[in-house]
Amino acid sequence: MYFQIIDNNKKCLKMYVSGDLADFQNLPELNKTWRHTDHLSDRDDVDYAYLYTSDGEIESVCPIFILDSWKCTSGRISAIMKSVVTSKCNLQDHCIYDYIPSDILLDFLKDKGNIIKHAFENIRRPAHYDVLKKAHILTEEMNAKSNLYNGELKNTNYSIFGTRTGRLSNKKSGIPILTMKREDRSSLEPSNDLFVEFDFNAAELRTLLALSGKEQPLNDIHEWNMQQTPDKITREEMKKRTFAWLYNPEARDPLLERLYNRDWVKDNYRHKDGVKTPFLRYIETDERRALNYIIQSTSSDVCIEQAYKLREFFKGCRTKICYLLHDSVILDFAKEDVDKFVEAKSIFGNTRFGQYVVNSSIGKNFGEMKEI
Length: 372
What we know:
By secondary structure, this protein is of the alpha+beta class. It folds into 2 domains: 4-124, no CATH class; 126-372, 2-Layer Sandwich (Alpha-Beta Plaits). It has helices at residues 64-86, 102-122, 129-143, 203-211, 221-227, 235-246, 254-260, 262-268, 287-313, 341-349, and strands at residues 4-5, 14-17, 20-23, 32-33, 47-48, 146-149, 152-155, 158-159, 169-170, 188-189, 194-200, 270-271, 274-276, 282-284, 320-324, 328-333, 350-351, 354-355, 358-363, 370-371.
């Protein structure tokens, strides 16, 4: 059954169902809505029409026969909300629906409900829906979480539709966690006791190795590469050599090609005019960028999948996932969960492609993280 959460504020307990407003109820038959909110943090069975779009915009799945009405009702809501924001009304302690006349709100929710119904009934579910849903739930919950940044409580603003490969992006507003300058990192502080970061060791190389059908080495992958050659070479030299080869499709290196089977991976995941990853993402691309897209997209989705496992692991705890980078997860960690640290690290590393080596670090702010 279709339903809508009206206000993302968890204090606001009104929902729209069967054409009217009702008190919020977490019923299993209410299982189709627009997008995730904290109200649904204990629900894994809800489907989201938002994920049927290609860009996160409701207009992209709005049927033509509703479009004019939708523009009118959504425009009225936007105008009201602009006046609410301009008037500096308190949206933390009051709900959005307290400021909107009920007839206008109901017209808006009716149109939105018809769009949601149309999306589910007429648009094919994306093949990569499973990982897309995990990314959506994670980002919505991270976006709702505030942390102290430059002396103010701020949120990040992740988007799951900002890149071709599915790697997360940050919209301009909010904490710029993906593009933050190193000198600004000390200005970001946890809400709990400290930040904990779990970081995959050479994630993209490990993904390429896995896609080549090889087992994961249990040590640093650059040192493992060094062990495969009789040449006397330092770790840093090996690292530069490996990445220079990895990201240049014209580069040739017999040792690395034997270890990673780069050309076979590219050909195996080619699909029509693009590539299809193990997570069933289809990405249009030319020959030159095909391998990079396969590796980057798959590595990002591995991180999302593992972070979602940590979300489940820490349910009911104060420790929460607060940020995702492309190959690492950052936890806002509570000291009473210290006995869960080792298991959480193991969970993050136990991927569908084998056990990835995970580096861990802790810090009182994001700029002073110490490896442990």
